[in-house]
Amino acid sequence: MSARRWLGLLGVMMAHTANPAEPLSGAARLGSLLFSDPSLSASGRQSCASCHDPSNAFAAPRTAGVVMYGGPALDRPGLRTVPSLRYLDHTPRFTRHYYVSSARESADRGPTGGFMRDGRAESLRAQALLPLLDPVEMANANVTEVARRLRATAYFDELRQLYGAEKLSADDVLVEHAAETLERYQLEDPAFHPYSSRYDQFLAGKLELSAQELRGLRLFVDPAKGNCAECHPHASAAGGRAPAFTDFSFHALGVPRNPGIPANAERQFFDLGLCGPRRADLQGERNYCGFFKTPSLRNVARRRFLFHNGRATTLAEAVRFYVERDRLPQLWYPRAAGASLPYDDLPVELRGNVNSSDAPFNWRAGEPPVLDAAEVDDVVAFLQTLSDTN
Ligand code: HEC
Ligand code: HEC
To answer: What's the CA gap between 273 and 90, in Å, rounded?
Structure first.
Protein backbone atom coordinates (compact mmCIF):
# COMPACT_ATOMS: atom_id res chain seq x y z
CA MET A 1 0.00 0.00 0.00
CA SER A 2 1.37 3.45 -0.86
CA ALA A 3 2.17 5.93 1.88
CA ARG A 4 -0.59 8.20 0.62
CA ARG A 5 -3.20 5.44 0.96
CA TRP A 6 -1.86 4.35 4.32
CA LEU A 7 -2.40 7.85 5.66
CA GLY A 8 -5.88 8.12 4.25
CA LEU A 9 -4.90 10.89 1.86
CA LEU A 10 -6.56 11.41 -1.48
CA GLY A 11 -4.33 10.17 -4.26
CA VAL A 12 -5.09 13.15 -6.44
CA MET A 13 -5.61 16.66 -5.24
CA MET A 14 -8.57 18.43 -6.68
CA ALA A 15 -8.68 21.99 -7.86
CA HIS A 16 -7.71 23.97 -4.79
CA THR A 17 -4.92 26.09 -6.10
CA ALA A 18 -5.79 29.55 -7.32
CA ASN A 19 -5.26 29.82 -11.03
CA PRO A 20 -2.18 32.03 -11.40
CA ALA A 21 -3.36 33.16 -14.82
CA GLU A 22 -6.52 34.68 -13.37
CA PRO A 23 -6.07 38.46 -13.22
CA LEU A 24 -6.66 40.26 -9.92
CA SER A 25 -9.80 42.35 -9.63
CA GLY A 26 -9.34 46.13 -9.52
CA ALA A 27 -9.95 46.09 -5.77
CA ALA A 28 -7.32 43.40 -5.15
CA ARG A 29 -4.77 45.25 -7.28
CA LEU A 30 -5.35 48.43 -5.28
CA GLY A 31 -5.11 46.36 -2.11
CA SER A 32 -1.61 45.31 -3.10
CA LEU A 33 -0.62 49.00 -3.29
CA LEU A 34 -2.10 49.77 0.12
CA PHE A 35 -0.44 46.71 1.61
CA SER A 36 3.04 48.06 0.98
CA ASP A 37 2.37 51.78 1.41
CA PRO A 38 4.17 53.23 4.47
CA SER A 39 2.46 56.63 3.99
CA LEU A 40 -0.64 55.10 5.63
CA SER A 41 1.15 54.98 9.01
CA ALA A 42 1.75 57.73 11.57
CA SER A 43 5.50 57.14 11.32
CA GLY A 44 5.39 57.30 7.51
CA ARG A 45 7.78 54.36 7.63
CA GLN A 46 5.62 51.28 8.29
CA SER A 47 3.27 49.36 6.02
CA CYS A 48 1.55 45.99 6.38
CA ALA A 49 4.48 44.53 4.43
CA SER A 50 6.99 45.80 7.03
CA CYS A 51 5.66 43.24 9.50
CA HIS A 52 4.21 40.71 7.04
CA ASP A 53 7.19 40.25 4.72
CA PRO A 54 6.10 39.00 1.26
CA SER A 55 9.46 37.24 0.92
CA ASN A 56 8.93 35.33 4.19
CA ALA A 57 5.43 33.93 3.63
CA PHE A 58 3.95 37.22 4.93
CA ALA A 59 5.24 36.57 8.46
CA ALA A 60 7.81 38.78 10.23
CA PRO A 61 11.03 39.45 8.30
CA ARG A 62 13.68 36.81 9.09
CA THR A 63 15.91 39.46 10.66
CA ALA A 64 13.27 40.81 13.07
CA GLY A 65 13.23 40.19 16.81
CA VAL A 66 10.51 38.39 18.74
CA VAL A 67 8.01 41.27 18.38
CA MET A 68 7.83 44.14 15.92
CA TYR A 69 7.98 47.81 16.93
CA GLY A 70 5.53 50.43 15.69
CA GLY A 71 3.90 53.71 16.70
CA PRO A 72 4.69 57.25 15.49
CA ALA A 73 8.43 56.84 16.28
CA LEU A 74 8.61 53.06 15.70
CA ASP A 75 9.67 52.58 19.31
CA ARG A 76 6.62 50.85 20.77
CA PRO A 77 6.89 47.07 21.09
CA GLY A 78 4.14 44.71 20.00
CA LEU A 79 2.75 42.02 22.27
CA ARG A 80 2.72 38.91 20.06
CA THR A 81 4.75 37.31 17.31
CA VAL A 82 3.60 38.13 13.77
CA PRO A 83 1.54 35.35 12.16
CA SER A 84 1.94 34.42 8.49
CA LEU A 85 -0.90 35.74 6.32
CA ARG A 86 -0.84 32.65 4.10
CA TYR A 87 -3.68 30.13 4.10
CA LEU A 88 -6.14 32.25 6.08
CA ASP A 89 -8.75 32.20 3.33
CA HIS A 90 -10.85 29.37 4.79
CA THR A 91 -10.87 30.70 8.36
CA PRO A 92 -14.39 30.23 9.73
CA ARG A 93 -16.16 32.98 11.67
CA PHE A 94 -15.41 32.97 15.38
CA THR A 95 -17.80 30.89 17.44
CA ARG A 96 -17.62 29.69 21.05
CA HIS A 97 -19.03 26.29 20.16
CA TYR A 98 -17.91 24.62 16.95
CA TYR A 99 -19.76 21.38 16.31
CA VAL A 100 -18.15 18.68 14.23
CA SER A 101 -20.62 15.99 13.31
CA SER A 102 -19.81 12.46 12.29
CA ALA A 103 -22.16 9.56 11.54
CA ARG A 104 -22.38 8.72 15.23
CA GLU A 105 -22.24 11.96 17.15
CA SER A 106 -21.86 15.70 17.13
CA ALA A 107 -18.88 16.90 19.14
CA ASP A 108 -18.35 20.42 20.49
CA ARG A 109 -14.77 21.47 19.63
CA GLY A 110 -15.14 24.64 21.66
CA PRO A 111 -14.02 28.13 20.56
CA THR A 112 -12.96 28.18 16.91
CA GLY A 113 -12.19 30.65 14.11
CA GLY A 114 -11.86 34.38 13.62
CA PHE A 115 -8.72 36.35 12.79
CA MET A 116 -5.85 37.31 15.11
CA ARG A 117 -4.38 34.93 17.67
CA ASP A 118 -7.41 35.61 19.89
CA GLY A 119 -9.99 35.47 17.05
CA ARG A 120 -11.18 39.02 17.77
CA ALA A 121 -11.53 40.15 14.11
CA GLU A 122 -14.51 38.66 12.34
CA SER A 123 -13.26 39.09 8.76
CA LEU A 124 -10.13 40.15 6.91
CA ARG A 125 -11.92 43.41 6.17
CA ALA A 126 -12.59 44.12 9.84
CA GLN A 127 -9.07 43.00 10.70
CA ALA A 128 -7.42 45.54 8.37
CA LEU A 129 -8.59 48.47 10.51
CA LEU A 130 -6.90 47.12 13.64
CA PRO A 131 -3.23 47.61 12.60
CA LEU A 132 -4.05 50.97 10.97
CA LEU A 133 -5.39 52.25 14.31
CA ASP A 134 -3.21 50.27 16.76
CA PRO A 135 -0.99 52.69 18.73
CA VAL A 136 1.90 50.18 18.66
CA GLU A 137 1.53 49.51 14.92
CA MET A 138 0.53 52.00 12.22
CA ALA A 139 -0.84 54.27 14.94
CA ASN A 140 -3.41 56.48 13.22
CA ALA A 141 -5.41 58.36 15.85
CA ASN A 142 -8.74 57.62 14.18
CA VAL A 143 -10.53 56.84 10.93
CA THR A 144 -10.33 60.50 9.87
CA GLU A 145 -6.55 60.37 9.97
CA VAL A 146 -6.52 57.19 7.86
CA ALA A 147 -8.87 58.86 5.36
CA ARG A 148 -6.63 61.93 5.17
CA ARG A 149 -3.61 59.74 4.41
CA LEU A 150 -5.56 57.81 1.75
CA ARG A 151 -6.60 61.03 0.00
CA ALA A 152 -2.94 62.03 -0.29
CA THR A 153 -1.87 58.84 -2.11
CA ALA A 154 -1.16 58.52 -5.83
CA TYR A 155 -3.77 55.77 -6.12
CA PHE A 156 -6.64 57.71 -4.51
CA ASP A 157 -8.05 58.56 -7.94
CA GLU A 158 -8.19 54.87 -8.78
CA LEU A 159 -10.05 54.20 -5.53
CA ARG A 160 -12.55 56.90 -6.51
CA GLN A 161 -13.00 55.45 -9.96
CA LEU A 162 -13.62 52.02 -8.50
CA TYR A 163 -16.10 52.98 -5.78
CA GLY A 164 -17.50 56.33 -6.92
CA ALA A 165 -16.20 59.76 -5.94
CA GLU A 166 -19.36 60.76 -4.11
CA LYS A 167 -19.34 57.76 -1.80
CA LEU A 168 -15.71 58.19 -0.88
CA SER A 169 -16.24 61.74 0.37
CA ALA A 170 -17.27 60.27 3.73
CA ASP A 171 -14.23 59.26 5.81
CA ASP A 172 -15.70 56.08 7.23
CA VAL A 173 -16.91 54.87 3.83
CA LEU A 174 -13.51 55.56 2.28
CA VAL A 175 -11.69 53.63 5.01
CA GLU A 176 -14.19 50.78 4.84
CA HIS A 177 -13.50 50.42 1.09
CA ALA A 178 -9.76 50.64 1.67
CA ALA A 179 -10.13 47.71 4.09
CA GLU A 180 -12.10 45.87 1.44
CA THR A 181 -9.23 46.23 -1.06
CA LEU A 182 -6.83 44.71 1.48
CA GLU A 183 -9.22 41.81 1.97
CA ARG A 184 -9.60 41.26 -1.79
CA TYR A 185 -5.81 41.31 -2.24
CA GLN A 186 -5.29 38.65 0.45
CA LEU A 187 -8.09 36.47 -0.88
CA GLU A 188 -7.29 36.73 -4.59
CA ASP A 189 -3.54 36.97 -4.97
CA PRO A 190 -2.05 33.44 -5.33
CA ALA A 191 0.95 34.68 -3.31
CA PHE A 192 -1.26 34.12 -0.23
CA HIS A 193 -2.02 30.49 -1.09
CA PRO A 194 0.60 29.07 -3.42
CA TYR A 195 0.34 25.42 -2.26
CA SER A 196 3.85 24.92 -3.60
CA SER A 197 5.33 22.87 -0.75
CA ARG A 198 6.91 19.44 -1.19
CA TYR A 199 4.04 18.04 0.84
CA ASP A 200 1.54 19.45 -1.69
CA GLN A 201 3.47 17.78 -4.47
CA PHE A 202 3.46 14.55 -2.47
CA LEU A 203 -0.33 14.81 -2.04
CA ALA A 204 -0.68 15.30 -5.76
CA GLY A 205 1.40 12.19 -6.40
CA LYS A 206 4.21 14.20 -8.02
CA LEU A 207 7.02 13.23 -5.65
CA GLU A 208 7.79 10.83 -2.83
CA LEU A 209 8.85 11.97 0.61
CA SER A 210 12.04 10.54 2.13
CA ALA A 211 11.80 7.63 4.57
CA GLN A 212 12.46 10.01 7.47
CA GLU A 213 9.81 12.51 6.33
CA LEU A 214 7.27 9.69 6.01
CA ARG A 215 8.11 8.44 9.50
CA GLY A 216 7.61 12.00 10.73
CA LEU A 217 4.24 12.23 8.99
CA ARG A 218 3.07 8.98 10.60
CA LEU A 219 4.16 10.15 14.06
CA PHE A 220 2.42 13.49 13.39
CA VAL A 221 -0.84 11.69 12.62
CA ASP A 222 -0.72 8.68 15.02
CA PRO A 223 -3.11 9.32 17.97
CA ALA A 224 -0.85 7.24 20.23
CA LYS A 225 2.27 9.27 19.27
CA GLY A 226 2.26 12.98 18.33
CA ASN A 227 -1.47 13.25 17.62
CA CYS A 228 -0.58 16.58 16.04
CA ALA A 229 -3.12 16.19 13.22
CA GLU A 230 -5.90 16.34 15.82
CA CYS A 231 -5.51 20.14 15.83
CA HIS A 232 -3.24 20.59 12.77
CA PRO A 233 -5.10 18.43 10.17
CA HIS A 234 -2.86 16.92 7.49
CA ALA A 235 -5.44 15.51 5.06
CA SER A 236 -7.45 17.17 2.31
CA ALA A 237 -10.79 18.49 3.50
CA ALA A 238 -14.18 17.81 1.97
CA GLY A 239 -14.24 18.64 -1.72
CA GLY A 240 -10.51 18.00 -2.04
CA ARG A 241 -9.37 21.29 -0.52
CA ALA A 242 -5.72 21.00 0.49
CA PRO A 243 -5.10 20.80 4.25
CA ALA A 244 -4.51 24.08 6.12
CA PHE A 245 -2.73 22.31 9.04
CA THR A 246 -5.06 24.04 11.47
CA ASP A 247 -8.63 23.38 12.54
CA PHE A 248 -8.77 27.00 13.83
CA SER A 249 -9.52 25.76 17.38
CA PHE A 250 -8.33 27.49 20.55
CA HIS A 251 -6.35 25.87 23.38
CA ALA A 252 -4.24 26.77 26.38
CA LEU A 253 -0.99 24.86 25.84
CA GLY A 254 0.83 26.31 28.85
CA VAL A 255 3.71 27.68 26.75
CA PRO A 256 6.28 29.09 29.23
CA ARG A 257 6.50 32.84 29.78
CA ASN A 258 8.96 34.58 27.49
CA PRO A 259 10.98 37.29 29.28
CA GLY A 260 11.97 38.54 25.80
CA ILE A 261 8.47 40.08 25.39
CA PRO A 262 8.81 43.65 26.74
CA ALA A 263 5.28 43.64 28.25
CA ASN A 264 6.33 40.68 30.43
CA ALA A 265 8.77 42.87 32.38
CA GLU A 266 5.68 43.75 34.40
CA ARG A 267 5.27 40.66 36.61
CA GLN A 268 1.55 41.20 37.08
CA PHE A 269 0.93 41.31 33.31
CA PHE A 270 -0.38 38.24 31.49
CA ASP A 271 -1.35 37.86 27.83
CA LEU A 272 -4.41 35.66 28.22
CA GLY A 273 -5.49 35.36 24.58
CA LEU A 274 -9.25 34.80 24.30
CA CYS A 275 -9.97 36.48 27.63
CA GLY A 276 -7.83 39.56 27.01
CA PRO A 277 -6.20 42.04 27.14
CA ARG A 278 -6.41 42.60 23.36
CA ARG A 279 -9.81 40.94 23.06
CA ALA A 280 -12.56 42.65 25.07
CA ASP A 281 -15.76 40.64 24.78
CA LEU A 282 -14.73 37.47 26.66
CA GLN A 283 -12.83 39.00 29.56
CA GLY A 284 -15.28 37.62 32.12
CA GLU A 285 -14.93 34.07 30.80
CA ARG A 286 -12.14 32.82 33.00
CA ASN A 287 -12.33 29.30 31.54
CA TYR A 288 -11.02 30.71 28.23
CA CYS A 289 -7.97 32.44 29.73
CA GLY A 290 -4.72 31.32 28.11
CA PHE A 291 -6.45 30.08 24.95
CA PHE A 292 -4.79 30.96 21.63
CA LYS A 293 -5.72 30.01 18.08
CA THR A 294 -4.06 26.98 16.52
CA PRO A 295 -1.91 28.37 13.69
CA SER A 296 -1.31 26.71 10.33
CA LEU A 297 1.97 24.80 10.31
CA ARG A 298 2.58 25.60 6.66
CA ASN A 299 5.89 27.52 6.36
CA VAL A 300 6.53 26.97 10.07
CA ALA A 301 10.18 26.11 9.30
CA ARG A 302 10.61 29.68 8.03
CA ARG A 303 9.68 31.23 11.37
CA ARG A 304 12.31 32.36 13.84
CA PHE A 305 9.98 32.68 16.84
CA LEU A 306 7.32 30.08 17.52
CA PHE A 307 4.09 30.23 19.53
CA HIS A 308 2.20 33.45 20.30
CA ASN A 309 4.98 34.63 22.59
CA GLY A 310 7.93 33.35 20.57
CA ARG A 311 9.16 31.18 23.43
CA ALA A 312 10.55 28.49 21.08
CA THR A 313 13.16 29.46 18.51
CA THR A 314 13.71 26.18 16.66
CA LEU A 315 11.29 23.59 15.37
CA ALA A 316 12.98 20.89 17.44
CA GLU A 317 12.45 22.99 20.57
CA ALA A 318 8.76 23.51 19.72
CA VAL A 319 8.21 19.77 19.17
CA ARG A 320 10.13 18.89 22.34
CA PHE A 321 7.81 21.18 24.29
CA TYR A 322 4.90 18.87 23.45
CA VAL A 323 6.91 15.86 24.69
CA GLU A 324 8.49 17.38 27.79
CA ARG A 325 5.97 19.87 29.16
CA ASP A 326 4.72 17.58 31.93
CA ARG A 327 7.47 14.93 31.82
CA LEU A 328 10.45 17.26 32.37
CA PRO A 329 8.88 20.54 33.55
CA GLN A 330 12.17 21.63 35.13
CA LEU A 331 13.55 22.12 31.59
CA TRP A 332 10.76 24.53 30.75
CA TYR A 333 9.60 26.37 33.84
CA PRO A 334 11.41 28.36 36.53
CA ARG A 335 11.85 26.87 39.97
CA ALA A 336 10.74 28.22 43.31
CA ALA A 337 11.47 26.56 46.64
CA GLY A 338 12.98 23.57 44.84
CA ALA A 339 9.91 22.78 42.72
CA SER A 340 9.23 23.99 39.19
CA LEU A 341 6.27 26.27 38.67
CA PRO A 342 4.45 24.85 35.69
CA TYR A 343 2.46 27.00 33.26
CA ASP A 344 4.11 30.16 34.57
CA ASP A 345 2.60 32.37 31.85
CA LEU A 346 -0.81 32.11 33.54
CA PRO A 347 -1.83 33.45 36.95
CA VAL A 348 -1.82 30.56 39.47
CA GLU A 349 -5.61 30.41 39.73
CA LEU A 350 -5.99 29.93 35.96
CA ARG A 351 -3.42 27.18 35.46
CA GLY A 352 -6.17 24.55 35.48
CA ASN A 353 -7.21 25.83 32.02
CA VAL A 354 -4.16 24.22 30.45
CA ASN A 355 -5.01 21.33 28.14
CA SER A 356 -4.19 17.98 29.73
CA SER A 357 -6.89 15.88 28.06
CA ASP A 358 -5.91 15.77 24.38
CA ALA A 359 -2.94 13.59 23.38
CA PRO A 360 -0.01 14.25 23.58
CA PHE A 361 -0.94 16.34 26.64
CA ASN A 362 -2.54 13.41 28.49
CA TRP A 363 0.89 11.91 29.27
CA ARG A 364 1.01 10.44 32.80
CA ALA A 365 3.99 9.92 35.11
CA GLY A 366 5.70 6.58 34.52
CA GLU A 367 4.76 6.37 30.84
CA PRO A 368 7.52 6.57 28.19
CA PRO A 369 7.84 9.90 26.35
CA VAL A 370 5.34 10.17 23.46
CA LEU A 371 8.26 10.82 21.06
CA ASP A 372 11.91 9.86 21.65
CA ALA A 373 14.78 12.04 20.39
CA ALA A 374 14.96 10.35 16.96
CA GLU A 375 11.18 10.65 16.58
CA VAL A 376 11.32 14.37 17.37
CA ASP A 377 13.85 14.68 14.52
CA ASP A 378 11.50 12.78 12.21
CA VAL A 379 8.58 15.11 13.00
CA VAL A 380 10.84 18.12 12.39
CA ALA A 381 11.87 16.64 9.02
CA PHE A 382 8.21 16.28 8.13
CA LEU A 383 7.38 19.86 9.20
CA GLN A 384 10.11 21.06 6.83
CA THR A 385 8.17 19.61 3.88
CA LEU A 386 5.44 22.20 4.56
CA SER A 387 7.47 25.18 3.35
CA ASP A 388 6.38 26.78 0.10
CA THR A 389 9.11 27.06 -2.50
CA ASN A 390 8.38 30.78 -2.95
C1 HEC B 1 3.82 46.43 13.58
C2 HEC B 1 3.66 45.15 12.92
C3 HEC B 1 2.38 44.92 12.12
C4 HEC B 1 1.84 45.69 11.11
C5 HEC B 1 2.32 47.06 10.61
C6 HEC B 1 0.71 44.97 10.61
N7 HEC B 1 0.56 43.78 11.28
FE8 HEC B 1 -0.80 42.34 10.89
N9 HEC B 1 -0.26 41.38 12.60
C10 HEC B 1 0.77 41.74 13.43
C11 HEC B 1 0.71 40.97 14.66
C12 HEC B 1 1.66 41.06 15.84
C13 HEC B 1 -0.44 40.14 14.55
C14 HEC B 1 -1.02 39.23 15.63
C15 HEC B 1 -1.84 40.12 16.51
C16 HEC B 1 -2.73 39.47 17.55
O17 HEC B 1 -2.98 38.27 17.47
O18 HEC B 1 -3.18 40.18 18.46
C19 HEC B 1 -1.01 40.42 13.22
C20 HEC B 1 -2.14 39.77 12.70
C21 HEC B 1 -2.64 39.98 11.44
C22 HEC B 1 -3.70 39.20 10.82
C23 HEC B 1 -4.42 38.01 11.46
C24 HEC B 1 -3.72 36.71 11.11
C25 HEC B 1 -4.37 35.50 11.73
O26 HEC B 1 -3.66 34.48 11.86
O27 HEC B 1 -5.55 35.55 12.11
C28 HEC B 1 -3.93 39.74 9.58
C29 HEC B 1 -4.93 39.26 8.56
C30 HEC B 1 -3.04 40.87 9.44
N31 HEC B 1 -2.25 40.98 10.58
C32 HEC B 1 -3.02 41.73 8.34
C33 HEC B 1 -2.39 42.97 8.37
C34 HEC B 1 -2.65 44.05 7.42
C35 HEC B 1 -3.62 43.98 6.25
C36 HEC B 1 -1.85 45.10 7.79
C37 HEC B 1 -1.78 46.49 7.19
C38 HEC B 1 -3.02 47.24 7.17
C39 HEC B 1 -1.09 44.66 8.95
N40 HEC B 1 -1.45 43.39 9.27
C41 HEC B 1 -0.13 45.44 9.58
C42 HEC B 1 1.74 42.70 13.15
C43 HEC B 1 1.56 43.72 12.22
C1 HEC C 1 -4.85 20.23 21.28
C2 HEC C 1 -4.49 20.89 20.03
C3 HEC C 1 -3.06 20.77 19.54
C4 HEC C 1 -2.30 19.62 19.36
C5 HEC C 1 -2.72 18.18 19.64
C6 HEC C 1 -1.05 20.05 18.79
N7 HEC C 1 -1.02 21.41 18.67
FE8 HEC C 1 0.50 22.52 17.90
N9 HEC C 1 -0.48 24.23 18.41
C10 HEC C 1 -1.73 24.29 18.99
C11 HEC C 1 -2.01 25.65 19.40
C12 HEC C 1 -3.27 26.15 20.08
C13 HEC C 1 -0.87 26.41 19.06
C14 HEC C 1 -0.64 27.91 19.32
C15 HEC C 1 -0.17 28.07 20.75
C16 HEC C 1 0.37 29.47 21.06
O17 HEC C 1 0.51 30.30 20.17
O18 HEC C 1 0.65 29.71 22.22
C19 HEC C 1 0.07 25.49 18.42
C20 HEC C 1 1.31 25.87 17.90
C21 HEC C 1 2.22 24.99 17.32
C22 HEC C 1 3.51 25.39 16.77
C23 HEC C 1 4.02 26.83 16.66
C24 HEC C 1 3.58 27.40 15.34
C25 HEC C 1 3.85 28.88 15.15
O26 HEC C 1 3.75 29.34 14.00
O27 HEC C 1 4.14 29.60 16.12
C28 HEC C 1 4.11 24.25 16.31
C29 HEC C 1 5.47 24.13 15.65
C30 HEC C 1 3.21 23.14 16.61
N31 HEC C 1 2.06 23.64 17.20
C32 HEC C 1 3.47 21.82 16.30
C33 HEC C 1 2.72 20.76 16.81
C34 HEC C 1 3.17 19.39 16.78
C35 HEC C 1 4.47 18.89 16.15
C36 HEC C 1 2.20 18.64 17.43
C37 HEC C 1 2.24 17.17 17.76
C38 HEC C 1 3.39 16.74 18.55
C39 HEC C 1 1.15 19.56 17.82
N40 HEC C 1 1.50 20.83 17.44
C41 HEC C 1 -0.02 19.19 18.47
C42 HEC C 1 -2.59 23.22 19.18
C43 HEC C 1 -2.23 21.88 19.12
So the answer is: 21
